[in-house]
Inverse folding.
């Protein structure tokens, strides 16, 4: 069965902890009575985790690219020296 957008939003709110106490209890009762809903919740949780990890990986790659650009380019020598001076003041 195709999951409706409303159900996806409800699952997301549940997973993100945005439901009030009564709404959370009602949603958990619905899960007990509806095994396919449990499967949908597990799947959406897995999807959210994969998206989060992909975002972290992409951000890390962007940071590495910026670091490489700033600290290896010949025309950035003055910048590198200034950064080295800031972080090596106590040494």
């Amino acid at each position: 069965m195709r999951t409706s957008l409303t159900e996806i939003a409800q699952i997301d709110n549940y997973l993100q902890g945005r439901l009030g106490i009564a709404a959370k209890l009602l949603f958990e009762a619905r899960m007990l009575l509806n095994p396919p809903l449990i499967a949908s919740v597990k799947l959406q949780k897995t999807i959210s985790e994969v998206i989060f990890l992909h975002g972290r990986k992409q951000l890390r790659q962007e940071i590495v690219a910026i670091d490489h650009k700033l600290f290896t380019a010949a025309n950035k020598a003055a910048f590198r020296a200034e950064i080295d001076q800031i972080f090596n003041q106590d040494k």
